[in-house]
Task: structure prediction
Amino acid sequence: MKNIVCLIGQLGNGGSERQLALFLKKLDREKYNPVVIVTSVSGGRWEDHIKNELSVPVHSLGDKRHIFKILKYRSILSELKPSIVLCWSFFANPLYLFSWGTRFIGALRNGLDVPKKELSGFHFKLAMKPKRFVVNSSLLARQLADAGIAENKVSVIYNFFEMNKDFEDKGKRLEAKRQKRAEYNIPEDAILVVWAARDNPVKGFPFFVDVFEKTLESVPNLRGFLGGSGSLSVKDEIAKRGLQDKITIAGDIKNIRLMLPIADIFFLPSLAEGMPNIFLEAIDAGCGVLATDVGGIRDIYSVLDEETRRKLLIEQRDVEEASGKLKNLCVDAEFRSGATEKLKRKLYEMSPTRIMDKFYNLFPR
Result:
């Protein structure tokens, strides 16, 4: 049995952590023995799940100085002698320098613009140095190519996605929609547009509010629903504009996926993404979708014809353009449902079996 180290920055409530957990869940445990190394302090939503439900050991490098983290990292690798270190966080990529003798695969799961701003120039430069990378969208592969990383060093592996069997039943979806709307006092005949994310400037909550307000001028029965910690960041602005009766602020929701059937339209207004899990879940839930041109959105839309893709993609962060496209989705229910049915074909390409096969191809023989 071969040891595998999965390296990640933290095990909080993020998409990378969730994808790591799915990878560990689907990994062939008769052939591979996984261990997780967290470069920061221990704790977080996904740590308990990985340790207790998936029975995978988790080691933390803690909040010590860099030299002590490096020494602990080397000690773990010396003991385990893994066949591969699979990184899941871009800013943890520099540890490739101290993984000698072990195949190391770096990660880029969100756009390069964010780490360029957040990391020092030296840290960023080191994070770009692994001999191989895994990215989760074609856009990120192009960003690495533009930064001088050879194409043959980069593997595009989409996120795992497991379709919700309950969503296959249209009757169950409609009943869930009715119940959730009643719970939040949203009229059954309203056109409801939804977005949910953590509190981070790249998630684009202000742009959502701007586009919603503009569209409301021509679609009076439009309603908004914002979830996640990021929704609280625009609560005061929504009240200032007098939109508090038009937009519901839900805050954190334990399982936002189960809320998605509430929506007619799911609008992703982000400035940067990798392969947004919640967007895939919205498609699975039968929502019409609209998104800014970020991360893996063009990969998802690749199953659509050019005209349909143009109607669902916001190429410029322009309120007028976005509002026009949102209005079109509001008034044309047949178009949005037809587009969503086509998009569901893309979800099958992200089945765990297909994604795991791509990872196995990277492992040493």
About this structure: The chain has two domains: 2-160+351-360, 165-348. The chain has a mean pLDDT of 93. The first helix runs from residue 15 to 26.
